[in-house]
Amino acid sequence: MTISKIRPIRSYVLRQGRLTKYQLKGIKLLSPIYTIPFGNNVLEWENIFKSEKKRIIEIGFGMGHTTAEIAKIIRNSNFIAIDVHSPGVGNLLNIIKEKDIKNLRIIQHDAVEVLEKMVLDESLDAVHIFFPDPWHKKRHNKRRLVQQPFLELISRKLKKGGYIHIATDWDDYANWIIKLFEKNLIYKPRNSDFSKKPSYRPITKYENRGVNLGHQVWDMIFVKS
Ligand SMILES: C[S@@+](CC[C@H](N)C(=O)[O-])C[C@H]1O[C@@H](n2cnc3c(N)ncnc32)[C@H](O)[C@@H]1O
Q1: What does each C-alpha distance from 31 to 18, 27, 42, 103, 223 come to in angstroms?
Q2: What are the pLDDT digits (tens) for 79-97?
């Protein structure tokens, strides 16, 4: 079998984006402090943060502005934010340092592999996914992050009563997500009105783009029963 046949389908494309001096400096100086390397070792949250708080993972933080704001708002939780793109990692590292955010760390890797290899079952209080790439062309739908096996993986990692919050500005992706949740009886919707943004979620960069295009925004929160 050729390599291309066994390569898993990824929900992202690694672009060779140029790093600004600011982002590069962030990565060089701050990675050793705020970044957790990907590996086969299980995350030891209390050891990493030196505090016992709720545990929230954010998948796909982009440039990280929203992630940093949420970490400031939800102070009773520790956050591990995951993305693959270096410019965003550099940016968020700088924000963590500048705003002196103590409850946020970064992993630069595919979040699916992080969940599989580094996260203990029934250990998370929440998973946040804000504006995942919509992969809106039919032939690209298979690249969407939110799929049946993905929801099963998350349900294993969440504690009972833990929640997953997904926001999107693509109606088609929102309907796809709702249908998947309906098949997974372990999840129950927390909010009945998916057009209402919870107060802890600031508006994100991608959301602004969607809103300017006239898109409706969906905030879907499902609790593991
Ligand atoms: C459309 S952007 C949204 C960024 C941000 N949440 C916002 O709303 O501005 C989606 C992000 O998810 C990241 N992403 C997609 N699949 C991922 C995966 N499997 N693991 C980690 N990050 C992923 C991409 O690199 C990208 O930064």
Answers
A1: 18, 5, 19, 15, 33
A2: 999 999 999 999 999 999 9
